[in-house]
């Protein structure tokens, strides 16, 4: 019994044809009628049993209705119908494809997929917006989330760690909008990121030194620039003897660490009751004896608690923030603190930021789709009431002799001035002398 089909060129043409959609819709309605006759019994069937049921019913339907399809095309329709009844329909293959990073649906006719940072339109189709909503509701059902007129916007975490966002009418004007962000089951390690070209070995050493020295690090970048993947990789440098607490809106981090407490915020109900914010979790985490606190994304009032935690004994904490440059990252911290009602002068806020943050790692997605660390900057203090920084490394794109663009990271010849790194170097030097 076949469950997966390898497409030939002819099969691809047929699957994406109107004939395929029409026959699939006709037989789907026939199967739904048969399922109603079976009642509760159908709900207890395994996927293999559903596949067999679909193939037998489809064979009978094609013969009686004299549907003009050959054996190969019949199997393609059966496979699609099985996914409709027992799986996630057209989304099933995309969700199973490890190369797919994002799935974006803008109405049932427009499906886009991101692979290796490049967004392309997919040829797969849904019958209509109701078809899309039916598949989405099947994803949401085990999560206990609703999607209807009273709840036209849903944000949910998938069982595999991915993230789902859905907006339906009347909020989505041109049809249902679905955004699915997938995450790797096994997060990328620093060595793998070096191999992929995200940064070079010299930068890997600087990042390892910063994390081991318990420097506070912010990963700054735009949407889908690789911030979460980089944060996961940085966490591999944290010693196993330390207790790590992660705080996120939607749990996306997957740290390869032996002692992690994962906390996730909770949206409020229709009247706001039951809301647990990132700020609430951050305050509570300080009572959980954390060695390090990792905030998945700094985007609101929690910035004040995070800066205080970094300044008062929770060295080695990390987080991500949406910003287009290290300087913009600092501006955004100031803005968020101001919105949160920071009680103090502008100068005192900047001094607290400079005291809390040690390094800003800027990551971005290039036009080619490649994700690269664009710069590493060290926060050195406050000069003339402005937070001072020094750039340690900068990314440049150079043209090789073969005409292809190549990545290069230029060291500006400045060594980190952080006393935390100085202490780590001294301890490593002393340990090396003792071993000798």
From TrEMBL:
<comment type="similarity">
    <text>Belongs to the GSP E family.</text>
</comment>
<feature type="domain" description="Bacterial type II secretion system protein E">
    <location>
        <begin position="85"/>
        <end position="363"/>
    </location>
</feature>
<dbReference type="InterPro" id="IPR027417">
    <property type="entry name" value="P-loop_NTPase"/>
</dbReference>
<dbReference type="InterPro" id="IPR001482">
    <property type="entry name" value="T2SS/T4SS_dom"/>
</dbReference>
<dbReference type="InterPro" id="IPR050921">
    <property type="entry name" value="T4SS_GSP_E_ATPase"/>
</dbReference>
<protein>
    <submittedName>
        <fullName>CpaF family protein</fullName>
    </submittedName>
</protein>
<dbReference type="GO" id="GO:0016887">
    <property type="term" value="F:ATP hydrolysis activity"/>
</dbReference>
<dbReference type="Pfam" id="PF00437">
    <property type="entry name" value="T2SSE"/>
</dbReference>
């Amino acid at each position: 019994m076949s469950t997966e089909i390898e497409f030939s060129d002819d099969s691809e043409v047929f699957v994406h044809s109107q004939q395929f959609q029409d026959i699939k819709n006709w037989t789907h309605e026939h199967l739904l009628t048969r399922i109603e006759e079976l009642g509760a019994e159908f709900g207890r069937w395994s996927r293999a049993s559903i596949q067999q049921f679909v193939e037998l019913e489809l064979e009978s339907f094609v013969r009686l209705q004299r549907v003009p399809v050959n054996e190969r095309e019949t199997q393609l329709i059966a496979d699609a119908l099985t996914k409709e009844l027992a799986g996630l329909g057209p989304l099933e293959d995309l969700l199973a494809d490890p190369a797919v990073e994002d799935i974006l649906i803008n109405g049932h006719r427009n499906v886009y997929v991101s692979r290796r940072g490049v967004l392309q339109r997919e040829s797969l189709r849904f019958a209509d917006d109701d078809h899309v909503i039916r598949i989405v509701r099947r994803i949401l059902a085990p999560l206990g989330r609703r999607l209807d007129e009273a709840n036209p916007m849903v944000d949910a975490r998938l069982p595999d760690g991915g993230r789902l966002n859905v907006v339906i009418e009347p909020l989505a004007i041109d049809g249902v909008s679905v955004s699915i962000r997938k995450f790797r089951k096994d997060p990328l390690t620093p060595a793998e990121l070096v191999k992929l070209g995200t940064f070079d070995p010299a930068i890997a050493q600087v990042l390892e030194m910063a994390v081991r020295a318990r420097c506070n690090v912010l990963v700054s970048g735009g949407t889908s620039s690789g911030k979460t993947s980089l944060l996961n990789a940085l966490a591999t440098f944290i010693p196993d003897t330390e207790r790590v607490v992660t705080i996120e809106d939607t749990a996306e981090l997957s740290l390869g660490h032996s002692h992690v407490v994962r906390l996730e915020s909770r949206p409020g109900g229709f009247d706001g009751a039951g809301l647990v914010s990132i700020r609430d979790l951050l305050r509570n985490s300080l009572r959980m004896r954390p060695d390090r606190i990792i905030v998945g994304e700094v985007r609101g009032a929690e910035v004040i608690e995070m800066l205080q935690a970094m300044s008062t004994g929770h060295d080695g904490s990390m987080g991500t923030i949406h910003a287009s440059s290290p300087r913009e990252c600092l501006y955004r911290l100031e803005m968020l603190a101001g919105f949160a009602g920071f009680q103090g002068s502008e100068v005192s806020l900047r001094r607290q930021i400079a005291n809390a943050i040690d390094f800003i790692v800027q990551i971005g997605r290039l036009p080619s789709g490649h994700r690269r660390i664009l710069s590493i900057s060290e926060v050195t203090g406050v000069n003339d009431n402005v937070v001072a920084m020094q750039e340690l490394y900068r990314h440049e794109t150079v043209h090789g002799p073969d005409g292809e663009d190549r990545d290069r990271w230029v060291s500006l010849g400045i060594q980190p001035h952080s006393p935390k790194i100085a202490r780590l170097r001294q301890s490593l030097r002393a340990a090396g002398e003792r071993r000798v």
